[in-house]
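Before any further analysis, we paired sequence with structure tokens, yielding the entry below:
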Amino acid sequence: MEQLLHYTWKLKLFPLKELLTSDGMLVEVIDPGKHNSDAGPDFVNAKVRINGTMWVGNVEIHDKSSDWYVHGHDKNSDYDNVILHVAKVLDTEVMKSNGQYVPQLQLDVPPHVQAHYDELRQTEEYPACYKVIPDLPSLTIHSWMAALQVERLERKTSDIRRRVERCNGSWEDGYFTTLARNYGFGINGDVFEQWAQNVPLSAVAHHRDDLFQIEAVFFGQAGLLELDAVPECYQKEALNDGYFARLRNEYQYLAHKFSMKPIDFRLWRFLRLRPQNFPHIRLAQLANLYYQQKAGLSQLIECETLDELKHVLSSQVTPYWETHYTFGSESAKNAKHLSVGSINLLMINTAIPMLFAYGRHQSKAVLCDRAFEFLEQLKAENNHIIRMWKQVGLPVKSAGDSQALIQLKKEYCDKKDCLRCRFGYEYLKRK
């Protein structure tokens, strides 16, 4: 497998014998070069001594040397700087586009590496590397977790930047969209993001001192003020519900004023949702947050402590929603504050990534550092992914750790990308 050959070359896992080219010249690998994830040769800036002469250039790796022609490298001048062609099977000579032949080295994957790689790929246990976890040095664990934590924030930063671009470069709107998405708490995340992009915040800003009008826009743009959005068994009650009727009338006026159109109410999902997570409740909490002027980026950036951040993200509902989960269906009174767990998730998935992303955008290291500090101060998440890692012996002390392990599972374990994982490396190198 070509990927495994890359791994063998990169880590110089060579056999304990002289390396020779196909025509018998002695090869000494001084530096395997830097792995190239973009177009072009596999490793760049390698240093290789061939028959006593030092060469600096690129290295290309294939399962079979004939793949050089299959991939068209003989016609591509980008490969004219290749100083060595490495393959598991040498079945032909290879030539550059300038007519020069390329020295070739036949390289085998060490048997123990191949065996352990096959184990990782084929085992039904999860995670596949569970055997080595208890014996890993603490330094190895700490350094890999720190790198994964940065990877996780970088990935979320990319998502935030895409939202900012869709918001015509507005970081304020991008933050609101990110916040709204995470108010979906997974199951309705995509719909909340679509809804947020459909809310004209510049228009709503003219009415931000009136919570009722904010609710009218928020529920109206969500399509939840349409009668068909109310279950048939509650439609009569909704029509007799003064609050629902008032919101509908207000939204119709504001929709005409600002040329607004709602999203399709059928996008919202309710199946297997606890009532506390119904879109109506989350929208009411978001409306209250916006009304209190706590949904802005400037308020987020001003938070220097975790307590300040928790306060900014804390929200509640209006009296109507204290006795309702949907329109037309009355329930026992419940204040419906955001729970501590929900606030923690919003900090981890919204506030902290936004601090990091905006800090990168503004080149303000203090915001990036604050993001890492908040992650270390927050308790670790408790979900099936984290419980799995705990069971195999990995310490999980903070939200920084849990975010790192979520990144590990999603980007490495799920993709069977053990060759890029430091835990996988420890597994593969065992004798």
